[in-house]
Amino acid sequence: MYLDHQGRSWFRGNLHTHTTVSDGRKTPDETAAIYRAAGYDFLALTDHWKPSRTAEADGLLLLPGCEYDVGKSAAEGIYHIVSIGAERPVQLEKSPELSVQEVLDAIRQAGGFPILAHPAWSLNQPSEICRLRGIGAAEIFNSVSNTPWNGRRADSGVLLDTAAALGMPLPLVASDDSHFYTGEACTNFIWLQADELTCGSVMEALKAEKFYASQGPRIETEWNGRVLRVRCTTVREVVFYSNLVWSNRRVTRGDAVTEAEYAVCPGETFLRVEVIDAEGKKAWSSPVVCG
Length: 291
What we know:
By secondary structure, this protein is of the alpha+beta class. The chain is about 15% helix and about 35% strand. The strands form two sheets. Strands 1, 2, 3, 4, 5, 11, 12, 13, 14, 15, 16, 17 and 18 form a 13-stranded mixed sheet that branches. The mean pLDDT is about 95.
């Protein structure tokens, strides 16, 4: 947890991880201990089709979570949806006929927050993502969707920018999706601004989009409808992304960059910012809508 310059509390959490309840290599207790030792404030155990419950583990808040999947091939569409904070049982049964929209609807009906998991790894098509309704956030980075555990499909930035350019700018999270616990755990997370560390307060902040994705750097963004400003811990590069393929003001570089800004250009429909520190660790803002 840290306090920003306004005295607001920001909590660190991972919203996607697996245990021996499904296909993970660590038990729930072992997983909680790993994240607690790394300084996390909250964690969701999201085993495949095996919902977890709210709990408290020696100061670590455990949120209700589960991961649901649909689809048989990338050509037809494979979707993995993580459910966070469901207040009631999610009324779903695994079936070849189950659609991703039915999964999203069921999670919402149960009071949960649905996250589109690893869209680049799943080869999700931006045009198809834009047909969906009820997605709460999408993973811009997923640890285990990278080598040595998978191919290099961890970063979904281009795919999600394309979806935003098509009219669906989604809030962004970063997650571990831990299975193996051989280096992927405790590397990608969100910072979330909440009044207190309770399930209710965290869920309220998620639904209000009071969070950003990170691997370490801290950022604060300000959008006044014309200029997107970012203040951050010391980084070496700040990059602004939008639907335009060219702008000569996108990148600010230096040995100790702590702030940058970008004025919207004609034709831009969304903006987001990414910062990269000296170790190559990133933080990502969610996109803001222009105009």
